[in-house]
Structure formats: C-alpha cells, structure tokens
Write a structure and sequence with these properties.
It is a single chain. With 305 residues, the chain is α/β, with parallel strands linked by helices. The protein has a domain of 168 residues: Nucleotidyltransferase, domain 5, CATH 3.30.420. The chain contains 6 helices and 12 strands. Strands 9-8-5-6-7-12 form a 6-stranded mixed sheet. A hairpin with a 5-residue loop joins strand 1 and strand 2. The radius of gyration is 25 Å and the shape is globular.
Length: 305
C-alpha cells in the first residue's frame, strides 16, 4: 500500500474534495489544472481550476486530545493520516506551580486587575469620609456567572479556529472529542470550568460536524493497537508523541472497534475494521505573545530626590 502524505483539494467554487497525493498535486500545478495555496493555519492545499470529475468523498474524522496547556488535533481517513496539529493553548503558555506566566491569559487578566486597581485608587480622595468619596460605579453587569473563565474560553476558541479553517479544505464527517472528566456535579460541588469549556466546545463544534464523546480509556487501547508511541514525561515537547498520536487514536475509533464475537466453539473479543496511519504534516500553532493595550508596564513608585 502506498503510504504517502495527502494534500487537501478544493473545487473551483471552494467546495472541499478528497485529498490527493503530492505527486498528483505537483502534476496538476505544473500543467495548469490547479494552483497551490495555504490556509490561515499554514496547511498547503490545491484548488482546481476546472470542474472535477466527481464530488464523491470518503469519511474523514477529526480526533481532539485536549490537555491543560496543549491540544493535539488529527485529521484521519480510513487509509491515510492527512494532517496533525499541536496547539499551544493561550490560556496557559507555561505550567508553573509558583507563579503564572505573564504572557498567558490568566497572567494578563491578573495584571490588568492590578493596574486597574492602581488607577482607580489614584482618583479617590481619601481625606473625606467614605460616603462622600467619588466612587465610579460599574459600567456593566460583570457578575453574569457564566462559569466559563477567559483562559478556558481562549483555549477552546483556538481549537475551534483550527477546525473551522480545516473544514474549508477538508470534508469533515465527524469530530471525536475525548472526555476530559471533571464533572463533580454528582458529588454536589457543581461542574468544573474544564467541563463547562468542554461542553461549550462541543456545542460550537457541532456547527461544523457531528460531535461524538469518546471515553479516555479507549484512547490507550486504540493507540496500542495502531502501534503509536506516547510521551508521558514532558507534554510541552512539540512532537506527535505528546498529543497528536492520541488524537489519531481517537479518530481511529470511528474505523476500528474492539467488539465481542461468538462462534460454535469459542468466544471473545477482536478488532474489527481498518485504519492506516501514514506520514502527515505536523503543524505547531500558537498565538503571538503581544499586548494589545497596556497603559503602564508596571506600577511606578515615587522617587525621592
């Protein structure tokens, strides 16, 4: 079997078609039948300049392996792996136990709060009574209690951005999302922000394709069956072994199942189906660590001369 990479293809009117081989894509570009392009996440694809011979497509499934600071996304068909993503989530650029990263969303939110308190404190005349002070009231109701922190929302929005851009060049059939757990509602403590973000992500991703929740225990079984390697020591390493291989295993649950069988003489379980893992482009996605708006870098102290 020819285990080569695949190049996404779209029709002249922008409709996603089945990916092709790099050799055929080069022939199309050289003969003037197609032009090469790149989407906003850096994936190369070709757009046909003439009407294609057919619009039939096969099943392409997306697997999303979500972590705290990184997420792996894989686009898998029955006979080939199309593209792999390693998303560096903006909510937590670095996982620090002692201090939070200033460039992450959590660090920016804390710094913004600190600077806002300093500016508001400078406008208060503390020489008068508390009731006579000029306190600015809140400009809007900032106590909405939607239980979705900005850091978690920023992480899920990056994942949705990747899925949205890839859905323009690939005919996505289904999205397989791993269950991250964290649902403590049964114990009476409510639902964790991670679970709330997961449910919000699935609601938004359902607008792109049908979303299926996959048990985290099935990820390891399918990963071992496909012969993939997992790096459990350092999840920050930008390689397929950290998160992308788990995403492939999640996508493969659509094509391969471990089912029970019975015969006249024996019974048990066996693997049914086919899923071939092939070399694929590995793309690392991150956001530029820039400050959109900042009045002061730090709180300035008074200098005595």
């Amino acid at each position: 079997m020819n285990q080569t990479t695949r190049v996404p293809v779209i029709s002249p009117d922008g409709k996603p078609l089945m990916p092709t081989t790099p050799a055929r894509a080069r022939k199309w570009i050289k003969s003037g039948k197609a032009i090469g392009k790149r989407n906003k996440v850096g994936v190369f694809y070709v757009q046909l300049l003439s009407v294609p011979s057919g619009y039939e497509t096969q099943k392409i499934v997306v697997g999303t392996d979500r972590g705290k600071a990184f997420t792996g996304i894989a686009f898998q068909s029955k006979l080939a792996t199309i593209v792999l993503f390693h998303a560096c989530l903006p909510g937590f650029y670095k996982s620090k136990k002692t201090s939070k990263d200033r460039q992450s969303v959590t660090g920016k939110m804390e710094k913004r709060t600190e600077l806002r308190r300093t500016r508001r404190g400078q406008r208060i005349n503390r020489q008068v009574a508390f009731k006579l002070r000029n306190h600015r009231e809140k400009r809007f109701n900032n106590r909405r209690q939607n239980k979705l922190p900005p850091s978690v929302k920023a992480n899920r929005e990056m994942e949705l951005r990747i899925l949205g851009e890839m859905s323009k060049i690939l005919p996505i059939t289904e999205i397989r999302d791993e269950s991250c757990g964290g649902n403590s509602k049964k114990n009476g403590f409510g639902i964790s922000p991670v679970t709330v973000g997961q449910e919000w992500f699935r609601l938004q991703a359902s607008k792109i394709a049908f979303v299926v929740e996959v048990d985290s225990l099935d990820t390891g079984k399918h990963r071992d069956y496909l012969g993939l390697v997992k790096n459990k020591k350092d999840k920050s390493v930008q390689s397929p072994e950290t998160h992308a291989n788990d995403a492939i295993a999640l996508a493969s649950t659509y094509f391969v199942q471990y089912k029970e069988f019975h015969t006249t003489k024996t019974h048990g379980h066996r693997w049914i189906g086919e899923c071939v893992v092939t070399p694929a482009p590995f793309v690392v996605v991150t956001r530029p660590k820039l400050f959109r708006r900042k009045l002061h870098q730090e709180n300035y102290s008074r200098v005595e001369f």
